[in-house]
């Protein structure tokens, strides 16, 4: 292992330029002759567009042009792409600019480009759009009623997609004969991603190639290229190039293309000018995809010992006004994959509906379905323990999948390749100082605080689209790696260099990761915790192929048997002789002066990182405020490339989960469909001072068995596990008030009402 190799907690190399202010984000880019674009958005949740009057724009200096949905349709522009894995989706076409109808407040209606931002803002206020307001609904439960307005005029109801899994009859029979049934009905509320850097786009037409270039902040440049070409413009992908610089966070929100990206490209083509669009934070609230927003009705059937006999789930997911991207998939397939968690449950039935409403589109947000699913099962298991007067650890131990059951097929048909859930739980419990809890509780009581504790065990799946192609080019004393994976703050560049440095035994200055350009690599990009699981595996496999290739070329050149050659410290050599060549010597001796290797990495399926979290909270009895006093996590993420990066990912996930548990909520006014939480004044986020110390650790003794690196993915794990742990801890603190459930976010107001009985 080298000083910069696998397992080392080295500092992230990508951070140096960022802390020095040398990063290049989308808002930092500018081009000669650049125009600025502004979007006029719908003020109504649902309406018919009757007329758009541009006559007053003649009085504004600097207006270059404008476009409507009708203009785009007449020029052959199609809707945003649908999820190819779901057939027969019932959804309106999501045109980049609204055509004939608007279906949520904030939907893009008109695009205007001007010479400068001031002219844009003036012009925006002078365009008159006449609407006929129509009935709407923002609640998916209401949208399912026969009396609800139909969001898609071409269909008879608002169900975009639905599915069932399991055996309903057998599960119902188990419930009839169970010793105990526990039930929970709750809303996993809607959230906004709130990336440090909002979205933004610049489009231009290259004078030489005539290709359309899109500069944007996204997680998958190749995916954006294909969306523009195959779905929206219906042209060859060769006509588009997508370039991504530094990305100030994604959290899943930047995985799919948006209307503004397509409109920028259209306007750049129409007016032959670079066109730049940078939204306000309020626009980001309105039109960047939201997450979660699922209603759950879940029940467990148990015997008197606490053994789970059956599990029934009904899910109603609000996916917003359009079923584009992963929204419907998250509700009906992604989350259900892990909904039984780490438990061996013999009888199971799930019914899931993805429902259209007059709200912004719901898409991927950190965990994308897995936090929602785990929240349900872990809340139910805790409730069962309470009703049966069982230790929350022991009811989990009783029902856990045992090590000798791996590989294990869950009720959804998913195969868990590895795990030791009891071992992980025991470590977390020990690290949390479980046995001294009562003394801490006593101190809290003396200080007028309620104290509560909870433990949660969980898993998730990672590795959406389990394959990726990576190209290695060795030339000029460098190994350059071209990948479609995208850095967005998760530290993958450092992790990749660590793998390469470790296996090739060369220092990082001889390595370079090239990303952020659809021309250099095609692939899925970074999402679903796949960057290290799949991309890192490609780095490992590619390194081995490089060594084999260097040996092969040296063998041919020097007429030496490959078996006689060894590789160490970046050199190929014959032991006991002076025959020695560096990796770069071999490359430079080729006719092309380089070595090129393309690696297609395919793993055996998704991985199943898992963990156990223990949380202790304090509640101020006077104010109702919740403080996370002590948080402990032990996570099985397989091989750890960089412990510091893993710790950062887990802690970040826990903090985002705490945001959902205690602070965050996207709210629409049911009467008029207006977004009530459309600014940082109205949307509450967790702060650093909300947390004391989060103690994280990992267990590497159970590597993934279906990829060469042994890693399981970690980017979303903290978010998956922390929400039920925090909520269960709060409910434990309130156990004397006979409270079985509280709707997230658990605000001080809600707690005060319980404590003071009003």
Characterization of the model:
By secondary structure, this protein is an alpha+beta fold. The chain has 3 domains: 15-19 and 464-602, Aldehyde oxidase/xanthine dehydrogenase, molybdopterin binding domain (Aldehyde Oxidoreductase, domain 4, 2-Layer Sandwich), CATH 3.30.365; 31-134 and 196-249 and 254-287, Aldehyde Oxidoreductase, domain 3, CATH 3.90.1170; 290-462 and 606-755, Aldehyde oxidase/xanthine dehydrogenase, molybdopterin binding domain (Aldehyde Oxidoreductase, domain 4, 2-Layer Sandwich). It has 19 helices and 28 strands. It has a 7-stranded mixed sheet with strand order 3-5-1-12-9-10-11, with helices on both faces. Strands 7-15-14-13-8 form a 5-stranded mixed sheet, sandwiched between helices. A hairpin with a 2-residue loop joins strand 22 and strand 23 (571-573). Helix 10 packs parallel to helix 18, helix 14 (492-504) runs parallel beside helix 15 and helix 17 (643-662) packs across helix 18 (717-733). The chain is globular, with a radius of gyration of 27 Å. The chain starts with 14 loop residues before the first helix and ends with a helix. The model has no long low-confidence stretch (mean pLDDT 96).
Taking pLDDT < 50 over at least 5 consecutive residues as the criterion, the unreliable ranges are none
The share of residues in helices is: 25-40%
Tally the helices: 19
CATH architecture of the largest domain: 2-Layer Sandwich
Gap between N and C termini, in Å?
62 Å
**What's the CATH H-level homologous superfamily of the largest domain?**
Aldehyde oxidase/xanthine dehydrogenase, molybdopterin binding domain
Q: Could you give the order of strands across the largest sheet?
A: 3-5-1-12-9-10-11
Number of extended strands: 28
Category from helices, strands and their pairing = alpha+beta
Tell me, rounded to a whole number, the average pLDDT: 96
């Amino acid at each position: 292992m080298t000083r910069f190799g696998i397992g080392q907690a080295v500092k992230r190399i990508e951070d140096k330029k960022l802390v020095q202010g040398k990063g290049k984000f989308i808002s930092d880019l500018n081009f000669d002759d650049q125009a600025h674009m502004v979007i006029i958005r719908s003020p109504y949740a649902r309406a018919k567009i009757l007329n758009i009057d541009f006559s007053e724009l003649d009085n504004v200096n600097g207006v270059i042009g404008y476009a409507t949905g009708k203009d785009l349709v007449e020029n052959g522009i199609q809707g945003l792409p649908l999820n190819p894995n779901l057939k027969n989706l019932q959804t309106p076409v999501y045109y980049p600019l609204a055509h004939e109808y608007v279906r949520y407040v904030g939907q893009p209606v008109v695009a205007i480009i001007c010479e400068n931002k001031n002219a844009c803002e003036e012009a925006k206020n002078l365009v008159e759009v006449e609407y006929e307001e129509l009935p709407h609904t923002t609640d998916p439960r209401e949208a399912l009623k026969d009396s609800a307005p139909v969001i898609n005029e071409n269909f008879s109801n608002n169900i975009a997609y639905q599915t069932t899994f399991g055996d309903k009859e057998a599960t119902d029979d188990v419930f009839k004969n169970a010793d105990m049934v526990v039930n929970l009905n709750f809303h996993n509320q809607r959230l906004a991603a709130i990336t440090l850097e909002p979205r933004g786009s610049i489009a231009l037409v290259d004078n030489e190639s005539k290709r359309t270039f899109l500069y944007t902040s996204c997680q998958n440049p190749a995916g954006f290229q294909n969306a523009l070409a195959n779905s929206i413009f219906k042209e060859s992908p060769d006509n588009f190039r997508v370039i991504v610089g530094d990305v100030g966070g994604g959290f899943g929100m930047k995985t799919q293309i948006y209307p503004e990206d397509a409109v920028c490209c259209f306007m750049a083509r129409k007016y032959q000018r670079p066109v730049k669009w940078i939204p306000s934070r309020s626009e980001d609230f309105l039109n960047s995809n939201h997450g979660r927003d699922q209603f759950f009705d879940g029940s467990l059937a148990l015997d008197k010992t606490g053994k789970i006999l059956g599990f029934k789930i009904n899910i109603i997911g609000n996916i917003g006004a359009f079923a584009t991207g992963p929204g419907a998939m998250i509700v009906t397939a992604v989350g259900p994959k892990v909904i039984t968690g780490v438990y061996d449950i013999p009888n199971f039935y799930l019914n899931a509906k993805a429902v259209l409403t007059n709200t912004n589109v719901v898409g991927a947000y950190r965990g994308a379905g897995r936090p929602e699913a785990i929240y349900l099962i872990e809340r139910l298991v805790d409730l069962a323990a309470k009703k049966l007067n069982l230790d929350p650890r022991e009811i989990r131990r009783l029902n856990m999948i045992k090590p000798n059951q791996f590989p294990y097929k869950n009720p959804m048909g998913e195969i868990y390749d590895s795990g030791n859930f009891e071992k992980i739980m025991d470590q977390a419990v020990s690290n949390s100082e479980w046995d001294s809890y009562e003394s801490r509780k006593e101190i809290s009581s003396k200080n007028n605080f309620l104290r509560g504790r909870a433990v949660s065990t969980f898993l998730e799946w990672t590795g959406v689209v389990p394959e990726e192609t990576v190209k290695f080019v060795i030339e000029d004393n460098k190994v350059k790696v071209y990948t479609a994976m995208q850095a967005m703050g998760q530290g993958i560049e450092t992790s990749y260099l660590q793998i390469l440095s470790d296996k090739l035994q060369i220092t990082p200055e001889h390595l370079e990761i090239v990303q952020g350009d659809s021309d250099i690599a095609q692939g899925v990009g970074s999402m679903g915790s796949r960057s290290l699981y799949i991309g890192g595996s490609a780095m490992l496999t590619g390194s081995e192929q490089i060594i084999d290739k260097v040996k092969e070329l040296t063998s041919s050149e020097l007429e030496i048997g490959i078996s006689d050659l060894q590789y160490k410290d970046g050199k190929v050599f014959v032991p006991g002789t002076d025959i020695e060549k560096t990796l770069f010597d071999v490359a430079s001796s080729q006719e092309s002066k380089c070595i090129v290797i393309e690696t297609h990495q395919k793993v055996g399926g998704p991985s199943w990182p898992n963990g156990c979290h223990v949380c202790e909270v304090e509640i101020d009895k006077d104010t109702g405020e919740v403080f996370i006093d002590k948080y402990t996590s032990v996570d099985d993420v397989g091989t750890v490339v960089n412990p510091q990066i893993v710790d950062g990912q887990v802690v970040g996930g826990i903090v985002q989960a705490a945001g959902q548990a205690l602070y965050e909520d996207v709210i629409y006014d049911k009467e008029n469909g207006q977004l009530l939480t459309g600014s940082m004044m109205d949307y509450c986020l967790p702060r650093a001072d909300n947390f004391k110390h989060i103690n994280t650790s990992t267990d590497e003794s159970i590597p993934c068995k279906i990829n060469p690196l042994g890693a399981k993915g970690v980017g979303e794990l903290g978010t998956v596990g922390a929400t039920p742990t925090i909520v269960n801890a709060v409910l434990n603190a309130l156990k004397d008030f006979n409270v079985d459930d509280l709707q997230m976010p658990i605000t001080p107001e809600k707690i005060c009402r319980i404590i003071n009985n009003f």
